[in-house]
Amino acid sequence: MSPPARRDSVEKLEKLIAALKAKGIITEEELAERQAQTDRASPETGARMVARAWLDPEWRALLLRDGTAAAEAMGVSMAGAPPLGVLEDTPQRHHLIVCTLCSCYPRAVLGYPPHWYKSFAYRSRAVRDPRGVLAEWGTVLPEGVEIRVVDSTADYRWMVLPMRPAGTEGWTEDQLAAIVTRDVLVGVALPKVPTAAAA
Prior knowledge:
Blueprint: H1 3-22, H2 28-40, H3 43-55, H4 57-65, H5 67-73, E1 84-88, E2 93-98, H6 107-110, H7 115-118, H8 120-128, H9 130-136, E3 146-151, E4 157-161, H10 173-177, H11 182-185, H12 195-198
């Protein structure tokens, strides 16, 4: 976006906010809290949701049935956000998240999207050649595994529930959450057990 277009967008946003405040629809305090909530959002939230799903079958069922309710149950406000869907990887299917139009992303549970997620190259190639894109990330899946590319949109946001790696039996929620990265949560990577832990 060019500087004049950016200025125009900022001015329009400021006018919209002023109109909403004037009508009593939103307050300065609510705006500040929403901004603070956005700034606090991080992939650690999504990682903890996954770790809990690996340990608790009832929580896993809730997460897969209603990701928004699961996030709210963890204290994450989803007010005003599109519904959150959670896609479960299996030995037969791997999910890859992309937003083909722009950069729709479940910020409440994953924080801000990385720059590559918003790039045209990723958005177009993930759809055309998902296996090739994953290989560039070092994620090589067996030929028999289907790769399902899922489009995150303004109406519905997605994250991945990856398979729990072997060698993590007996791990705590904290230990499990530590191996679930932002890249795992959108499907470009797999959770990896550190060599020392696997030994």
